[in-house]
């Protein structure tokens, strides 16, 4: 599958999505393609009436329940979310494969590297095909008319979380595995003044700070944010 074709397909589905979020979606298509994972964007903007119709599916209408969000209660309704599907490629054709496998998880990890929030990490309603970027705005704020910035200043800085040290490589590897599993983040075991873990990059300091906080409270390891670039 050619990258250009995948990007072309994705662009069509991203109409009406916030340009900053759409750019991340396209970047994700590129990054996954480089690893021989073909993804398609299945939905971007969903109007409030479309959301209400979807909400009725599995409730007053036939089908399975696919969302817990009524109109105005999903980031899709504000152009801040998109859904994807991993595809098998057979004879040059893309065949959506909804079985969550390691490719899906890899896409999740790469999306998070781009600063996107991945539904695959949610606890109450796991939503593997979903990514969103909220600009720190709650749905209530968006419903009341608050708007994300129209243009986002390019920030070339990147942030990582660095943990405190572990006793031996075995403990360090086990810790890396635990952190990956629980968070879906990219995690590296590194040696830098002791055995530590380092995450992939976050594009905003705030996100990295939240991640470090999570490491401290959930895992009880020391953690700090490191700035790069
Ligand atoms: Zn979604």
From TrEMBL:
Alphabetical list of InterPro entries matching this protein: Peptidase_M15C, SPOR-like_dom, SPOR-like_sf, Zn_M74/Hedgehog-like
Stored Gene3D superfamilies: 3.30.1380.10, Sporulation related repeat (3.30.70.1070)
Pfam families, alphabetized: Peptidase_M15_4 (PF13539), SPOR (PF05036)
Magnesium in keyword set: no
Sorted UniProt keywords: Plasmid
Domain SPOR positions: 153-228
Cited SUPFAM superfamilies: Hedgehog/DD-peptidase, Sporulation related repeat
Protein name: M15 family metallopeptidase
Organism in which the protein naturally occurs: Bacillus kandeliae
């Amino acid at each position: 599958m050619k990258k250009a074709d995948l990007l072309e397909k994705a662009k069509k589905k991203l109409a009406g999505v916030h340009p900053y979020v759409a750019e991340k979606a396209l970047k994700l298509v590129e990054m996954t393609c480089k690893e021989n994972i073909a993804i398609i964007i299945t939905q971007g903007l969903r109007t409030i009436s479309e959301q209400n119709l979807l909400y009725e599916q599995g409730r007053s209408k036939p089908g399975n329940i696919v969302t817990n969000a009524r109109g105005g209660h999903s980031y899709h309704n504000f152009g801040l979310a998109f859904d994807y599907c991993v595809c098998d490629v057979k004879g040059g054709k893309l065949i959506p494969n909804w079985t969550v496998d390691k490719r899906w998880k890899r896409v999740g990890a790469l999306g998070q590297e781009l600063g996107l929030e991945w539904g695959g990490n949610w606890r109450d309603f796991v939503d593997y095909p979903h990514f969103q970027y909220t600009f720190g705005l709650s749905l209530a704020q968006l419903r009341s008319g608050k708007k994300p910035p129209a243009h986002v200043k390019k920030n070339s800085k990147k942030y990582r979380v660095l943990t405190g040290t572990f006793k031996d490589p075995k403990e360090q590897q086990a810790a890396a595995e635990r952190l990956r599993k629980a968070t879906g983040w990219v995690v590296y075991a590194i040696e830098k003044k002791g055995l530590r873990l380092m995450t992939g990059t976050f594009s905003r300091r705030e996100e990295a700070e939240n991640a470090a906080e999570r490491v401290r409270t959930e895992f009880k390891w020391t953690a700090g944010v490191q700035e790069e670039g």
